[in-house]
């Protein structure tokens, strides 16, 4: 790229620049991308620092553009100053602390595959380049915050205890597993989910059986009570005793007296008594 005759820098086509240099949630990343893109841009007689200082405002969008326009004119003389002010605005110490805590407090979610957990963890590290964590601490934190199943899987892949391997081997092993075992990990998750559903169904069936047994038990109690009510001995209508009318001694006595008379002549009084007995039985 050459300078124009009047000494002013040309305004290049920034469609690719804007596409590649959009400000990220982590503005460290924006600066890294900006430096990566601009390192291949050269202008005769212009230093890299001056070129970057000139191009940087064109990489900003939205509120970042408004922020830059409010800066005092000629208050920034080097790109290092520009980067420091930019990070002070969009990547303050509180943000760095928050991102650093995301790394140190990392924990694999129950529904997260090994591949997803590793990508999630690496993204947290990339977003906080000033995390000050040694590589060995990074690997140790990641491994110990995995679920037990995935720690066992890594140990099996390591042929023993994962943490006894050299740092480079540990990193390469995790990279290899997350690259080639993503499909397996997804299948294993589905199997676990299926087992969980089956276990849940079995529990529900057992509870339903217990409930049905209790209902049957209560029903049998009701039937037994009804049966006892049906077999209760009725009271005699004649004397009120605990027997039926046909078994009442009083009635049986009258019937016997009437029978003993047979076809022989009976006094008028006896006929009247028999008549009374017959009338009473009706």
UniProtKB/TrEMBL annotation:
Keywords associated with the record: Coiled coil
Pfam families in the record: Retrotrans_gag
InterPro entries, sorted: Retrotrans_gag_dom
Organism: Tanacetum cinerariifolium (Dalmatian daisy)
Coiled coil: 198-225
Residue ranges constituting the Retrotransposon gag domain according to the UniProt record: 55-144
Keyword GTP-binding: no
The name this protein goes by in its record: Retrotransposon gag domain-containing protein
Superkingdom: Eukaryota
